[in-house]
From TrEMBL:
Protein name listed in UniProt: Alpha/beta hydrolase fold-3 domain-containing protein
Membership in a protein family: Belongs to the 'GDXG' lipolytic enzyme family.
Gene name for this UniProt entry: LOC100791894
Source species of the chain: Glycine max (Soybean)
InterPro entries documented for this protein: AB_hydrolase_3, AB_hydrolase_fold, Carboxylest/Gibb_receptor
Segments traversing the membrane: none
Residue ranges annotated for the Alpha/beta hydrolase fold-3 domain, each copy included: 156-416
Domain of life, source organism: Eukaryota
GO molecular function: hydrolase activity
Composition bias type Basic and acidic residues, residue spans: 85-97
Region of interest called Disordered, as start-end residue ranges on this chain: 28-53, 79-122
SUPFAM superfamilies in the cross-refs: alpha/beta-Hydrolases (SSF53474)
Length: 451
């Protein structure tokens, strides 16, 4: 069972959440604002930090002029240095009391995962000259040079939780979680600040997720265009990696003349190895984006979604599962609270527990399941949504998709991403388990892990 502290905080959390949800239901307007909001005023946010003081540099980018859609890039310092031969992934600097008392978890629904790694997953050149463009301790990035001159890391596109109505890519909890993932997975994390309900109901958040994926594809193509127009000869644009508008050969703009190549991604991101990761309602968005990536196919090149991670997805349905009956009044996000969240998210005329955004098992939801990317599902023992997530994973395995399930004992919904639980041993072990599984699908050929 969860600790007494978790139980007490859960009571306080549910009381506060219910109050906020009811207030938003009473004040919701029929006229939505296309610009919307991505972070609530009551949310504690972490400012972007473009230095590597803690091993990860961050940068915020507003990518859509018509909406509030934004992203936060998490760049691990490992991108600036070549990997050590046969090195293991960097451990999180937090103390690991869990080593003495290993966290108990069950992996009954897929192939076994081991906690220890035997080899390095990434290749990469040893030469990283020109990458350390620092000014006053702030990383400026640089424009892409010749192919192969720098180490490129896979990209993990991350969608935060919060029941559609709260949370944010820049929240303190999400910032800490993404930093952890960037370190243990050795990836560039792109956290999506999608629009929240009820100001922007379905399908706004889903459309934002797809829009970011398309934006990444455009970034990759602009970077390639930059090389063909002379960027590869000099290895950079302007002074210190900045773009000069006066240089027509090195200033790449889109059709509106506004967007340029993002140097952090152009220098360090390998978008042919893209993983989607979502927590709670963010897992619903990740699964939707994965389906759209399958439908888009070569239109998204060079972006390729190679895997997705669904952490305690926010699934529901009209026919209750066993866990929905037995655990309806579970910790933090109980079923009654989640019903309020769905009413705020789905348009009134479309409200249904079997809506394609809510129930992953309804027919005609998207492309055939056999075309979906490998999918790791993380569930918690005391989460009422666990059975439907497991059922979805079982359907994927029936059509030969790599879709294991990791179930954590004595865990609650959002046990690895909620602010008060982030430092728990379970949260740390969960991040490491995700890294072990994800690296199987993002390793460069010839550098695969051995289990």
């Amino acid at each position: 069972m969860p600790s007494v502290a978790v139980k007490l905080y859960s009571v306080f959390f549910k009381f506060l959440l219910k109050h906020r949800l009811q207030n938003r239901i009473q004040t919701t307007s029929d006229h939505s604002d296309p610009f919307g909001v991505t972070t609530r005023p009551e949310e504690s946010v972490a400012p972007a930090n473009p230095s590597f003081s803690d091993g990860v540099a961050t940068k915020d980018i507003h990518i859509d002029l018509l909406t509030s859609l934004s992203i936060r890039i998490f760049l691990p310092e490992s991108a600036l240095t070549p990997p050590e031969p046969h090195s293991k992934p960097r451990p999180d600097p937090e103390p690991r009391s869990a080593r003495a008392n290993p966290v108990s978890r069950r992996n009954s629904y897929g192939p076994p995962l081991r906690e220890e790694l035997r080899s390095n997953s990434f290749g990469g050149r040893s030469g990283v000259d020109g990458l350390n463009l620092m000014s006053d301790g702030v990383y400026r990035g640089y424009a892409p040079g010749k192919r192969g001159e720098q180490r490129r890391l896979p990209v993990m596109l991350q969608f935060h939780g919060g029941g559609w109505v709260s949370g944010g890519s820049d929240s303190v909890a999400n910032d800490a979680f993404c930093r952890r993932i960037a370190k243990v997975c050795d990836v560039v994390v792109v956290a999506v600040g999608y629009r929240l309900a009820p100001e922007n109901r379905y399908p706004a958040a889903f459309e934002d997720g797809v829009k970011v994926l398309n934006w990444l594809a455009k970034q990759a193509n602009l970077a390639e265009c930059s090389k063909s127009m002379g960027g590869g000869k000099s290895g950079g644009h302007g002074v210190g990696g900045e773009f000069k508008k006066s240089d027509s050969h090195k200033h790449i703009v889109d059709s509106f003349g506004a967007s340029m190549v993002e140097p952090w991604l152009a220098a360090h991101a390998d978008l042919s190895r893209c993983v989607l990761l979502g927590a709670s309602c963010g897992a619903n968005i990740a699964d939707y984006v994965a389906r759209k990536a399958v439908e888009g196919g070569k239109l998204l090149e060079p972006v390729k979604v190679v895997a997705q991670v669904l952490m305690y997805p926010f699934f529901i349905g009209s026919v209750p599962t066993r866990s929905e009956i037995k655990l309806a009044n579970s910790y933090f996000y109980d079923k009654a609270m989640c019903m309020l969240a769905w009413k705020l998210f789905l348009p009134e005329e479309e409200f249904s527990l079997d809506h394609p955004a809510a129930n992953p098992l309804v027919p005609g939801r998207g492309p055939p399941l056999k075309l979906m990317p490998p999918t790791l599902t993380v569930v918690a023992e005391h989460d009422w949504m666990r059975d439907r997530a497991i059922a979805y994973s079982e359907e994927l395995r029936k059509v030969n998709v790599d879709a294991p399930v990791l179930e954590y004992k004595d865990a609650v919904h959002e046990f690895a991403t909620l602010d008060v639980l982030l430092k728990s041993p379970q949260a740390q072990v969960c991040a490491e388990d995700i890294a072990i599984w994800a690296k199987k699908h993002i390793s460069l050929r010839g550098h695969e892990f051995s289990y």
